[in-house]
């Protein structure tokens, strides 16, 4: 007697068949009401696929720039957060200093795209929300695994977006370390995204190749044909918006957020950055550009930066102490450089000071492998920073004493601060009191 053919991949096997059937018979309270509530005829594979294609084209850029920003913090110097990432440690390299706007680009894209994509993410979730109320939640083991990956995907993007937006505003309402949570959340989301794309990409391509629905006016808007994923409403009601209007609302929301965000990186539009209060101007004049951490917040007082302040340079057994007058008497170099912060804002200013490589030579280190910079700030994650050889020896890497032709203000790091091309802003240490050159 010939053997029976194997069941299709999505058919329930004999063993759990009773489980799926039992779940289907015992519907939870409210399941029928939820099923009747989702009646929009514009939902369907085409709309979901259009929004999914936008996310598929942009989310990898958010992921890659986030990983590059972690590398920019210097994992080789043990100062990237989180530090110990175990087997999730990617290949790393010494972050370059050229082009000088590199970190400004990667961090700006990471934050700006995270904000601009919020309406697209919400639109995509709206297009599939009826599936979240399906009962039973799965009808086979394969479908159950797919649904679990979807939970990780939806939860992951909502978690990453919410914590990222709160970090921009310094609103740490979540009670856990942002850097650690954002790092591991990104890996979970990325794995779920890869699994989801592998499962759904053929259907996305099929839906996009099929007849388009964007040109249909609202009075002729009809549901799409029933689909295997159940995205089309079972009991569709009359259309109140066309699919083109839905896409216009989503696109308009994204453009509005872009307009309110672009000022974070364009100095001339700084006052339009309404969603980024730390990225707006804090005053007029040469030092009227943003600061992320004020002297008051850092506990740095004018008394500690007054005439008694000294910069200590160390290299091996040699120690050199310089006051600000002696620093100003050394050869001065001027460079136009951007400074970019993790919250996404950046600005370009004209900095004047002493080259770090000249300070290294003065301390007796002709070719330092690293420089460890310490601040007058006594607490905080970034009161110290390490720079690798390329960052120390770059011709525009400075211990800045002046900005835009005037002395640094106290909030901008007076009496001296670090400025290095393409260096994350948190490592451009302010209120420098000591530099140790090693190697």
TrEMBL record:
Transmembrane spans: 46-73, 109-129, 150-175, 181-199, 245-263
Disordered, as annotated region: 216-235
InterPro entries in the record: Di-haem_cyt_TM, Mopterin_OxRdtase_euk, OxRdtase_Mopterin-bd_dom, OxRdtase_Mopterin-bd_sf
Residues annotated as signal peptide: none
Keywords per UniProt: Membrane, Transmembrane, Transmembrane helix
Domain Oxidoreductase molybdopterin-binding, chain residue ranges per copy: 302-437
Domain of life: Bacteria
Pfam families with a match to the protein in the record: Oxidored_molyb (PF00174)
Protein name: Molybdopterin-dependent oxidoreductase
